[in-house]
Write a structure and sequence with these properties.
Layout lengths: L3 H14 L2 H9 L11 H4 L3 H55 L1
């Protein structure tokens, strides 16, 4: 049974990363047979609440998308800098090899 433990840990850590609104929507999307609530109509959100949650999720998505794009841009800049450093070192090594062969 050791294989079951990491899967449970992965699901727990993944669900802890979900925003509360998304988590709530996912729990609401569960099939009726899986919930133990005797009166599900009492907890059913109205249309306005769902629209608000959807708007919040879209805003969060756009923010995450923007942050992701910024991180990609920074990583690309770092990669370019590493390439420049590598080329500089390669040129220096070639110069030293040439100097030692004389």
């Amino acid at each position: 049974m050791p294989a079951a433990a990491p899967k449970g840990v992965a699901m727990q850590s993944f669900s802890s990363l979900l925003p509360k609104a998304l988590s709530a929507v996912l729990h609401l999307a569960a099939p009726p047979g899986l919930t133990s609530d005797p009166q599900p109509s009492r907890n059913t959100p109205n249309l306005q609440q769902l629209q608000t949650e959807l708007r919040d999720l879209r805003d969060q998505f756009e923010l995450m998308k923007s942050q992701h794009n910024k991180e990609i841009h920074l990583l690309m800049n770092e990669l370019d800098e590493e390439k420049r450093i590598r080329l500089t070192l390669q040129m220096e090594i070639q110069r030293m090899k040439k100097h030692m062969s004389k």
